[in-house]
Amino acid sequence: MKTLIIIPTYNEKDNIERLLNILLGLSPEIEVLVVDDGSPDLTGDIVHRLQDNEPRIHLIRRPGKMGLGSAYVTGFKYALAQDFQYIMEMDADFSHNPLDVPRLIEAAQKYDLVIGSRYCNGVNIVNWPIRRLLLSYFASKYVRVITKMPVKDPTGGFKCFNRKVLETIELEKILSDGYAFQVEINFRAWVKGFSIKEIPIIFTERINGVSKMSRRIAWEAAWMVWRLQIMKLLRLL
Ligand SMILES: Nc1nc2c(ncn2[C@@H]2O[C@H](COP(=O)(O)OP(=O)(O)OP(=O)(O)O)[C@@H](O)[C@H]2O)c(=O)[nH]1
Ligand SMILES: [Mg+2]
């Protein structure tokens, strides 16, 4: 069954071609959608050129940096307009190992939403400064305590959805970006009663390119969980 892997990009010229080659080599059922936000390093042009020989590469170009959350929502709508059964989220920077993709798709035969989890067996993160690691680890605990959602890695961005999850969640209503976006979408799926499975992955910090982690993104996630909790109580989800 057909899978669409959505990859948002902003300045990923050193990674994108190699990543697409590996992904497309995994299976003829796999297609990729790059959502590029006008990368100044011309990542979009590289992908456009690769499309010449490969119909399984899809590309949406947006004029400027509009954030990860809205890039995924745009990609989800594109996937739902076509006949993809599985729809994945993945970073372009090799933090997510493309060779883990088949394991996620396999688990998605049985579960509605599969999350590649850094915190299944201890902590599986390579090359993060201790400060960032602690922030992420305690953020995930904080999300769990407040939302009661049974997910150990709620901010992870390597996931596989069955299309019915994305058909059911009201994509229009998702407002958050970055880490909060991941938490919000998991929470909405969970509240609707979809099954969620975490499978262990090893996350490796990027070698090529520049990080976009910011204080604003962390704070957004910190208050978003309260907002979600209130919306759930008011039955707005
Ligand atoms: N389309 C789009 N993609 C983005 C945007 N911001 C980040 N990305 C992409 O989203 C993915 C994750 O972003 P990263 O910068 O790796 O974020 P991170 O993993 O939290 O941080 P680092 O790995 O430390 O840089 C990468 O593929 C980025 O190129 C954006 O505003 N628009
Ligand atoms: Mg990254």
Number of helices: 8
Spatial shape: globular
Q: Please, what is the average pLDDT?
A: 93
Strand order of the largest sheet: 3-2-1-4-7-5-8
CATH superfamily: Spore Coat Polysaccharide Biosynthesis Protein SpsA, Chain A
Short description:
Helices cover 41% and strands 17% of the residues. With 237 residues, it is an alpha/beta fold.
Your description of this structure?
It is a single chain. The model has no long low-confidence stretch (mean pLDDT 93). The protein has a seven-stranded mixed β-sheet, with helices on both faces. Strands 6-9 form a two-stranded parallel sheet. The protein has 237 residues and is of the alpha/beta class. It has one domain: Spore Coat Polysaccharide Biosynthesis Protein SpsA, Chain A (Alpha-Beta Complex), CATH 3.90.550.10. Helix 5 runs parallel beside helix 8 and helix 7 runs parallel beside helix 8. Strand 1, helix 1 and strand 2 form a beta-alpha-beta unit. It has eight helices and nine strands. The protein binds guanosine-5'-triphosphate (GTP) and magnesium ion. Guanosine-5'-triphosphate (GTP) binds next to strand 1, strand 2 and helix 3.
